[in-house]
Amino acid sequence: MIIGLDDTDSVDGMCTTYIGTLIVEAIRDLDRNIIREPPKLLRLNPNNPYKTRGNGAVSIRITETSGPKILEKIKSVSFDIVTKYSESGDNTNPAIVFLEDNSITPEIQLFAKRALHEMFSIDEAISLLNKIGADYNFIGNGRGLIGALASCALQLEDFTYELIVYRSHNKRGKKFVSEQGAMEIEKKYSPKIFSSYDFENQRMIISPHSDCPILYGLRGESPELILEAAKMIESEIPFKRNLFVTNQGTDMHLEEKSIEEVLPYSSVIVKGTVSKNPYTVPGGHVFFEISNGKKILCAAYEPTKGFRNIVRNLSEGDEITAYGGVLETEHGLTINLEKIEITKLAEFHKTEKPICPVCNNQMKSIGKEKGYRCKKCHTKNREVSIIPLPRDIKIGIYEVPMCAKRHLSKPLLRYGREKKFEEERFKFDYTKFDMKFEGI
Fold this sequence. Notes:
Blueprint: E1 2-6, H1 16-30, E2 40-43, E3 56-61, H2 68-85, E4 95-99, H3 106-114, H4 122-131, E5 135-138, H5 144-153, E6 160-166, H6 179-189, E7 193-194, E8 197-198, E9 203-204, E10 214-220, H7 223-230, E11 240-246, E12 255-256, E13 267-280, E14 286-291, E15 295-300, H8 307-312, E16 319-329, E17 332-344, E18 349-352, E19 364-365, E20 372-373, E21 380-381, E22 385-388, E23 396-399, H9 421-424
Parallel strand pairs: 2-11, 12-13, 15-17
Antiparallel strand pairs: 1-3, 1-4, 2-3, 4-5, 6-10, 6-11, 7-10, 8-9, 13-14, 13-16, 14-15, 16-17, 17-23, 18-22, 19-20, 20-21
Helix pairs in contact: 1-2, 3-5, 4-5
């Protein structure tokens, strides 16, 4: 059986991974050995206007049980936890689903994949759940059923891990997590552990500023290394921790599209030629236009910091590939850039009077359309010198800084480091993982 849950948080606090952790703990109290692999934290469409923060849903796989009675107990306990601990809010609609592995049809797998790129109606999720006879429950309008169902069925290719360390959900206000540990982890473990500290902008990335229960999270490719690195973090006394398999840092949300295929709320990879030079608007946001016959705006917003200077060096005629999420703005469809790849730079030149091949002096004009002559040796030349102008940018891939990176965006340092989920899924023995933080 797979348990999926989503939309249990609000802008004021809580976190779906925290509630997932409470459910895992409750199930372990019933039987420690029936959860053999870490739960999944799956980031869905990052452009969803209904998201609270990172649009993450959680799924938990139950592998073996002693019979139907314990399954019913698991379902009851899990929904009780969702009911008790979920935040309330105008945009909070918690949901939990229970699916059998063999009930996940190709139609549901496609639904899960589309949940990375598209917007769904609640009725579509309910229709699929009813079609396979799944158990589910929800609070509010049922919107959480979309992510809960998708989290159960989303198939991973590349994947990463995240160790999340929590304070108690009853504790609010300023968190204490030392930046020094994050700096040392970035220096020692990158790229196997990534997105810990942004030295360029002097910002710690591992600890969120929101009033959710997360103290910090370490993301990487090896659970053993992450657990080792966690010992370097000095923080307030933690409450719990959990290890998740995730699609973070994989670019799983991006789809290759032509400009005419781009839709609002999607995440795309689009090729085009710069057709309008970059310009800066109040607030420090930088816009430019690309075209392949049809035009679309691209934006590097102020939070992308120094990335905007790279964008400002683009010029009409440059050929690029734009990566990012699409929103409908006052200017029309706009790609919020996550990275760009420059594949060809436009060439610019200036003309100068020719150099005398005999004397090496600059020649002088002898009249309109009459050419040039060397004053010293009187050698004539009708051709001007064409001098290529240097560009302040090179062909290559450029990404936004770590402090502006989305959960799903693959850092350039992960290129070529993909991990196959089916090959790796049971290499870490989750039954031995201690959810109490070391020393507590």
